[in-house]
């Protein structure tokens, strides 16, 4: 198995495990404010995007360190994958729940799993092709902006649906 494929598979497993555990960290920390910046503080779609974003970002740093000498565009592709996986969460959630008219835990978990699998598949394919190399700075900037949005909107959410807990009135 080649190096890129091995690190991609390890990344999928890492993000699926750490993202799943991340769902509970805020509660386990006795609602620690600092933990809330990195881990979901409620059941809103916005907070669930953290389940993909921070574990993928952490693994991306590792993946870049391990692959950059052999795959010089790994930084650009992993940053794209972080963004893709993060935004697939609301896209898939609102698509399935809009179609069905309700939400289910099974499809919520499936949304997370599909987001992780698709983002790593795209990372793998784009790393081989190196098509995003010229966008590396922009992608890193977007990831930084996204992290800042998580920090800002965790405790100061906007009054729109993505920040609301399911079943709450806007």
**Beta-strand share of residues:** under 5%
Low-confidence stretches: none
Report the structural category: mainly alpha
Task: Return the domain count.
Answer: 1
Q: Tell me about the biggest sheet?
A: none
Gap from first CA to last CA: 50 Å
Q: Mean pLDDT, nearest integer? A: 95
Portion in helices: over 70%
Account of the 3D structure:
It is a single chain. By secondary structure, the chain is mostly helical. It has one domain. 75% of the residues lie in helices and 0% in strands. The chain contains 6 helices and no strands. Helix 1 runs antiparallel to helix 3 and helix 4 packs antiparallel against helix 5. The termini are far apart. The model has no long low-confidence stretch (mean pLDDT 95).
Topology:
Layout: H1 3-28, H2 33-38, H3 45-67, H4 74-100, H5 105-129, H6 136-155
Helix pairs in contact: 1-3, 1-5, 3-4, 4-5, 4-6
């Amino acid at each position: 198995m080649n190096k890129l494929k091995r690190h991609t598979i390890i990344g999928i497993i890492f993000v699926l495990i750490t993202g799943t555990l991340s769902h509970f960290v805020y509660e386990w920390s006795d609602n620690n404010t600092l933990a809330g910046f990195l881990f979901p503080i409620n059941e809103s779609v916005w907070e669930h995007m953290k389940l993909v974003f921070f574990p993928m970002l952490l693994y991306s740093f590792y993946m870049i360190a391990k692959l950059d000498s052999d795959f010089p565009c790994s930084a650009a592709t992993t940053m794209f994958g972080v963004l893709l996986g993060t935004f697939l969460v609301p896209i898939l959630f609102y698509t399935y729940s809009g179609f069905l008219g309700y939400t289910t835990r099974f499809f919520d978990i499936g949304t997370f799993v599909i987001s992780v699998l698709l983002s790593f598949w795209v990372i793998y394919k784009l790393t081989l092709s190196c098509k995003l190399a010229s966008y590396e700075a922009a992608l890193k900037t977007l990831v930084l902006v996204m992290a800042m949005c998580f920090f800002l909107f965790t405790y100061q959410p906007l009054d729109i649906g993505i920040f609301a807990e399911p079943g709450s009135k806007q």
